[in-house]
Amino acid sequence: xxxxxxxxxxxxxxxxxxxxxxxxxxxxxxxxxxxxxxxxxxxxxxxxxxxxxxxxxxxxxxxxxxxxxxxxxxxxxxxxxxxxxxxxxxxxxxxxxxxxxxxxxxxxxxxxxxxxxxxxxxxxxxxxxxxxxxxxxxxxxxxxxxxxxxxxxxxxxxxxx
Length: 161
What we know:
By secondary structure, the protein is an alpha+beta fold. It contains three helices and six strands; from the N terminus they run ββαββββαα. The chain has a two-stranded antiparallel ribbon. A hairpin with a 5-residue loop joins β3 and β4 (80-84). The longest helix has 47 residues, at 105-151.
């Protein structure tokens, strides 16, 4: 009754009709997919945290910027240079792929809020996909375990190869 597939454009196959070796291959593929999707999930969460931090800084507003104080301006992830804020009501926003746009603090705040909201939706969608793949993996593991137990010692050796 268990079946693999469920994805778009994929054919449903009864897991009971697969051999232990085929089930092991399906399990390996699902393991890799879950690992990749989990890494993507973590990257999206990190990006969301970065945008939330940008939003926090922009919302702290011009009052937090003192034009007499030095600031550190990031040129790369590990290289910063000293600078001064020339206009605390304007900020430079990284809009992606190396493009920067000058925005007032209100529109920069709106931009970051939208990014955080979009990423939250993507994270929620990805979480559902990961849960589905994880459930599929559990089903495959259970069917594989049953096949190995039914086959006895000879089946256990074949399933582990």
